[in-house]
Amino acid sequence: MHIQEKSEIAESVLMPGDPLRAKFIAENFLSNIKLFNNIRGILGYTGYFMDKKISILASGMGIGSVNIYVYELINFFGVKNIIRIGTCGSIKENVIPREIIVAMGACTDSNFFKKFNLNGYPSAISSWRILRKTYETSRELKIKIHVGNILTQIDFYLEDISNSIKWSKLGVLALDMETAALYLTCARYNTNALSILSVSDNLITKEEISSSEREKSLIEMIELALNTVIKL
Asked: Which of 24, 49, 132, 159 has the smallest count of CB within 10 Å of its CB?
């Protein structure tokens, strides 16, 4: 196991990629926090937000890493809802840095789906229940969101990004490295899943935000996720 045994983990988990972001969220948004995991530097905390018990666990980067932690959360700790909160790169001119994307579905250029031994290609889609609650919460908080499809890639550094940008012709909004694995693993084990992503850069316009600006934009995403979880 990659998560400390007998950990106290809530049925709803927020999952940033960065362990330090998990620490930041726990210390700044939750009360009565307890560190339940630090194996391999992957930090996990359980605490309360508006009397709702919530856990936060980092996933690391990429499909392989997120799949490990999602599998263990579901099968070893009985987690029912997982919301990824991370960053992405936009491939649409009108989806600009600092804005938020709620990933309704996730295409992928990986062969992750082959592990399920299917004779076709599964759709990696989010859970309607969390998607609907997130949309309603965004309206209440007056937070602008884009809802649509994204592409989960296996590589971060690409020699040629033109193939990635071609996905925009199919309505794909942005690129990340984790969501398809999250959705397919959760679907396999009947668990609710959603990715809420903050746009850090735009591959079309080349616009990007600084580290300090990124932290500010992440706050809005975190608040959206937390206020959604309390309704689940």
From this structure: 159
CATH number for domain 12-229, candidates 3.40.140.20, 3.40.50.1580, 3.40.50.300, 3.40.605.10: 3.40.50.1580
Exposed (0-12), middle (13-18) or buried (19+): which is 102, by Cβ within 10 Å? buried
> What are 122-153's pLDDT values in tens digits?
999 999 999 999 999 999 999 999 999 999 99
Helix (H), strand (E), coil (C) string for 171-200: CCCEEECCHHHHHHHHHHCCCEEEEEEEEE
pTM: 0.96
What positions carry a catalytic annotation? 201
Residue pointed to by tokens 């884009």: 146
